[in-house]
């Protein structure tokens, strides 16, 4: 009898019992609940290939924070299950687009989902373990590119790395906030010191004190030895509070003294311990908004927000997308047969709105590698056939021609939004007027020469 293949099942408690019973005929189900600790799930998924993410039994508002689950959900190929109701614009939709290679609505057809899981398992087995990005590979890649938004971001991160002031990194889910934190640490004078990351969303209330501050031997039952907390472990290096917006008010109070005095006291201890570390925090929600609703302490915010950088969404970096896609495919295909994107697929990537940002970008390319049974990946393999049909571009463009098309489109759109005022258009694109005129010279020299005044550029044809 053939040995059953392992299948991760991640869901709310007791959902879709009949489907799990059917799947157990062919799969060895490894069950997890959405309330389980993330570290437990991550360690169990290290060698997993495929999984089912069942969101059908969970109200949309109760979904765990995306930053909380990003590490675990990026480790395997997921097939999602969603309720039979519209999910466009919901957090459920964001999870599905960011992490799942396929999804099914209730009621689920067992034969269909079993076939999809088998196909994903087979393709993942052929590719081998090299398809899984290492954390450092992923983080280095998300900050690459030559677009103005990402070059400006890298410039800010480099400048912030030279000071010991706290840095607050904001941005939508999937824009690379943890990557930015590691960039700051790596370019700072503390690069040789420890980099300790605390996932605030995964920090249980009952364990906040012991996890952050540590404890002395005998401080409580089972405290057989003294233990350093995460803050003390970061001494001489950098401390990243990831998802600071997920901390409850009581947890915020627990770290306020440390933020004010730079000292901690272990549970059961009688003396303060000085901790010298650089504080970097990340959030995907505006903290001032949380302060106004009473969900975040203003005094904690003022301690953390000395320097702030907001990461750009992937949609604003469209000229980077062809190069990012090529680099990511190289990483995903290490040790396996090489596939490449068709011109139509590249065009669909450029044309997509990327609500899940770089995390969705990574997932769609992984999906394309799995679903394409040919050396060339097409828009349908990426789940972006509609984006390709909407693009309206010819099919024989080279990489440089795609970049040129994207730059021309950016110039045209910004001029329209600014009523053809060059100064305002340059501000929209977040570039200098000199850079804007350089692009005009590159793509529309004749029109530019006829309209030299920033306020009077109105008739150039950039199409």
Characterise the protein shown here.
By secondary structure, this protein is of the alpha/beta class. The chain has 3 domains: 5-127, Response regulator (Rossmann fold, 3-Layer(aba) Sandwich); 162-310, P-loop containing nucleotide triphosphate hydrolases (Rossmann fold), CATH 3.40.50.300; 400-456, Orthogonal Bundle (Arc Repressor Mutant, subunit A), CATH 1.10.10. The protein has 21 helices and 16 strands. It has helices spanning 17-23, 38-44, 66-73, 91-99, 110-127, 135-142, 148-161, 177-186, 208-213, 230-233, 249-261, 287-292, 298-304, 321-332, 343-351, 357-371, 379-382, 385-391, 399-417, 422-429, 433-450, and strands at residues 5-11, 27-33, 50-54, 77-82, 100-105, 167-170, 195-199, 214-215, 227-228, 238-242, 263-264, 273-274, 278-283, 307-310, 340-341, 376-377. The protein has a 5-stranded parallel β-sheet with strand order 2-1-3-4-5, sandwiched between helices. Helix 11 packs across helix 13 (298-304), helix 15 (343-351) crosses helix 18 (385-391) and helix 19 (399-417) crosses helix 20 (422-429). The chain is globular and about 70 Å long.
Main attributes?
463 residues, Rossmann fold, Arc Repressor Mutant, subunit A, five-stranded parallel sheet, 21 helices, 45% helix, disordered C terminus
């Amino acid at each position: 009898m053939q040995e059953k293949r392992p299948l991760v099942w991640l869901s709310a408690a007791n959902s879709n019992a009949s489907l799990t019973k059917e799947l157990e005929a062919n799969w060895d189900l490894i069950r997890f609940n959405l309330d389980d600790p993330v570290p437990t799930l991550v360690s169990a998924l290290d060698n997993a290939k495929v999984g089912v993410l069942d969101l059908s039994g969970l109200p949309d508002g109760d979904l765990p924070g995306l930053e909380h689950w990003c590490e675990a959900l990026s480790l395997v190929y997921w097939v999602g299950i969603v309720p039979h109701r519209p999910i466009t614009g919901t957090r459920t939709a964001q999870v599905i687009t960011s992490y799942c290679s396929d999804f099914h609505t209730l009621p689920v057809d067992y034969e269909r989902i079993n076939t999809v899981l088998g196909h994903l398992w087979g393709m993942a087995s052929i590719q081998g373990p090299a398809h899984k990005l290492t954390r450092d590979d992923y983080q280095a890649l998300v900050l690459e590119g030559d677009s103005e938004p990402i070059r400006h971001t890298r410039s800010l991160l480099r400048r912030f790395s030279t000071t010991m002031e706290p840095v607050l990194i904001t941005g939508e889910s999937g824009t690379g906030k943890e990557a930015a934190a590691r960039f700051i640490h790596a370019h700072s004078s503390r690069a040789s010191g420890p980099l300790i990351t605390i996932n605030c969303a995964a920090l249980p209330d009952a364990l906040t004190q012991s996890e952050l501050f540590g404890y002395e031997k005998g401080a409580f039952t089972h405290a057989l030895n003294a233990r350093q907390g995460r803050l003390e472990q970061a001494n001489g290096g950098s401390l990243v509070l990831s998802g600071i917006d997920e901390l409850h008010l009581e947890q915020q109070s627990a770290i306020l003294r440390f933020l004010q005095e730079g000292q901690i006291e272990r549970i059961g201890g009688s003396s303060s311990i000085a901790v010298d570390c650089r504080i970097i925090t990340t959030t995907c929600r505006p903290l001032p908004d949380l302060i106004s609703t009473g969900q975040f302490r203003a005094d904690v915010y003022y301690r953390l927000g000395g320097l702030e950088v907001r990461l750009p969404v992937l949609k604003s970096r469209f000229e980077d997308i062809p190069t990012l896609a090529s680099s990511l495919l190289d990483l995903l295909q290490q040790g396996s047969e090489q596939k490449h994107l068709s011109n139509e697929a590249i065009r669909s990537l450029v044309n997509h709105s990327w609500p899940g940002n770089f995390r969705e970008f990574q997932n769609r390319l992984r999906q394309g590698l799995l679903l394409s049974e040919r050396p060339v990946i097409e828009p349908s393999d990426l789940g972006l056939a509609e984006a390709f049909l909407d693009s309206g571009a010819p099919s024989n463009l080279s990489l440089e021609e795609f970049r040129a098309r994207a730059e021309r489109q950016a110039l045209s759109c910004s001029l329209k939004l600014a009523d053809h005022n060059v100064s305002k258009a340059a501000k929209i694109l977040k570039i200098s007027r000199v850079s804007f005129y350089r692009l005009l010279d590159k793509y529309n020299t004749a029109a530019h020469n006829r309209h030299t005044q920033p306020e009077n550029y109105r008739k150039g044809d950039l199409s």
